[in-house]
Design goal:
The chain starts with a helix and ends in a 9-residue tail after the last helix. It has nine helices and two strands. Strand 1 and strand 2 form a beta hairpin. The relative contact order is 0.09. It folds into two domains: 83 residues, no CATH class; 129 residues, no CATH class. It is mainly alpha-helical and 222 residues long.
């Protein structure tokens, strides 16, 4: 069912009840809540007279924009399907890692290239600008991420690290192992940024091992 064919213009909502509008919206998107319908009707009421001049033209423009969005959604779905086909040719199991979908996996492969160019995970870490640089001040050392390397790849690993140490709204860790490792590093005196660098470095080892040996996460050691 197309959104643009079913969604009414503001003028058609004048005598619409919350229940009726909720039912119509759920036919388009089952996840729509009653509160959303209430908000729409409240906006219509506060807006005053919604039967304005050129209302038909306004509705046509709105429907045209929605048709464009629907078309783009179909295109994105088709692109994702083609990406999945291409990933199968590489025989990598990167999508078994939590937080890695087809798009992210393809981005990783594109940025890393031929994994055989890196004799070990340390070389890949340097390429991504993740290998920590050591600094000493007043006899106290610290590790920080350097600014060199592939910044796109660096950003991907940073995203992974943040995801792995995050907790849900119910305070449940997304990945208990990485969360515990992160908390241990901060308890040892590292800042959150420094602890994230440690997480990123460990993720490099995992991604390297998965690509080098074409293994899934069930055979990897965190």
């Amino acid at each position: 069912m197309h959104f643009w064919k079913t969604y009414p213009s503001p003028g058609h909502l004048t005598n619409k009840s919350v229940e009726e509008l909720t039912g119509e919206l759920k036919a388009i998107s089952p996840n729509i809540l009653k509160s959303k319908a209430e908000l729409i009707l409240e906006c219509v009421q506060n807006d005053g007279n919604t039967i304005r001049d050129y209302q038909e033209s306004r509705d046509f423009i709105t429907q045209s924009l929605v048709r464009d969005l629907e078309h783009q959604a179909v295109e994105l779905a088709q692109i994702d399907t083609e990406i999945e086909k291409m990933l199968g040719a590489f025989d990598y199991k990167l999508t078994t890692l939590p937080g890695v979908g087809n798009a992210v996996a393809s981005k990783l492969i594109a940025e890393i290239g031929d994994i055989r160019c890196f004799p070990n995970a340390n070389k890949l870490a340097c390429f991504a600008g993740i290998a920590p640089k050591s600094f000493s001040s007043a006899g106290k050392g610290r590790d920080e991420s350097n600014k060199q390397g592939n910044r796109e790849l660096h950003g991907l690993f940073y995203f992974f690290a943040v995801t792995m140490v995050s907790v849900s709204t119910k305070r449940k860790p997304y990945n208990p192992i990485f969360r515990a490792f992160f908390l241990r590093k901060t308890s040892e005196g590292k800042t959150k940024s420094q602890a994230l660098v440690c997480i990123m470095r460990r993720l490099v080892n995992i991604i390297y091992g998965m690509m080098k040996n074409k293994m899934d996460t069930d055979h990897m050691c965190y």
